[in-house]
Specification:
2 copies of one chain form a homodimer. Chain A is an all-alpha fold. Chain A has 5 helices and no strands. Chain A has helices at residues 36-57, 67-99, 107-142, 145-148, 150-179. The longest helix of chain A is centred in the last third of the chain and has 36 residues, at 107-142. The radius of gyration of chain A is 23 Å and the shape is elongated. Residues 1-25 of chain A have low confidence and may be disordered.
């Protein structure tokens, strides 16, 4: 909102030409792409996903787990790997934007980030929920926990949940900045 | 973007006074609250949630299902019931808005709708994922399907997924109209 003189002697000021001058309706809000907060969020997502992945990867033996559990945990590993890659990529983009002081406010770029965040967070959340259900079922009722390293599965699941939890703010901030342009 | 004459003889046109006149940046987009599309979405959510709930409710006996499965399916029933109530409430609000031709475009109302949609859809999705994992585990591996009515559990889970799938557009449209005000 700029204050303008109410009376113009000859012509309207050039800033009324909305089509040419991009209007910035929102400040660089911490957490959006290209800010330090955004970089911090990406780092958290990446860290949690990497921990989850490494916990699953170092569990080499799945002796008495049923075939479907293995399928489900493989899906968890796949979803968390994707999350890992995506967060790393966007962290690099954030570092680049911060170092050259460029703003990542292109509509196409923000759309891409939003869609990617939505897809990866949905996949991670679904994998974490399904794994949580199966892990608790195996550990509580069927009682195979000594052989199945249930603690490992549980911590991997918890890390996947934490990763999803840190992707959500990125997604909402991207979506918000896309809608409020 | 309105075309204006480039030369004003005396004063600027009054529509430049952004603070007083609320600008409508987006038309009534089908699917938003208070539109026929929004009512249709709510009806779909409600229908799928009710089908899921009634399938679970008519399964009176859980003979050989383990304690944790019962807990998980109870959570599914709770999440789907909440979804049911919420969608019914908002369908009534839509019908009211359509019948008196009022627009539901208050910031507070839209915020409430967005938060409610976000919470119910997350709960429904989590319940559906966990139930899907457990149902497939029970039916495939532990092989108790004849006694456990696995088909019923599966259809209830599928309906919960469909309900989540129809809540998502409502949520995104609400969030979008909140951000683009």
């Amino acid at each position: 909102m700029m204050s303008r003189p109410a009376v113009h002697p000859v012509e309207a000021p050039p800033m009324t030409n909305d089509a040419e001058i991009p209007r910035v309706r929102m400040k660089d809000f911490q957490g959006m792409p290209g800010t330090l907060g955004g970089l911090f969020l990406r780092m958290c997502q990446f860290a949690f996903a990497v921990i989850s992945l490494s916990v699953m990867a170092t569990t080499s033996d799945f002796p008495s787990v049923t075939a479907f559990s293995i399928m489900c945990f493989s899906y968890l590993v796949a979803a968390v790997s994707l999350q890992c890659l995506w967060s790393l990529l966007l962290a690099i983009a954030d570092i680049y934007a911060l170092s050259v002081r460029r703003s990542l406010r292109n509509v196409g770029v923000i759309s891409l980030f939003t869609i990617g965040d939505g897809v990866t967070s949905t996949l991670t959340f679904a994998a974490a929920c399904a794994s949580a259900g199966i892990t608790v079922l195996i550990s509580n009722d069927v009682d195979k926990c000594n052989v199945n390293h249930c603690t490992r599965f549980m911590s991997a699941t918890a890390m996947a949940f934490l990763s999803w939890f840190t992707v959500s703010p990125s997604f909402f901030l991207n979506f918000w900045s896309l809608a409020s342009r």
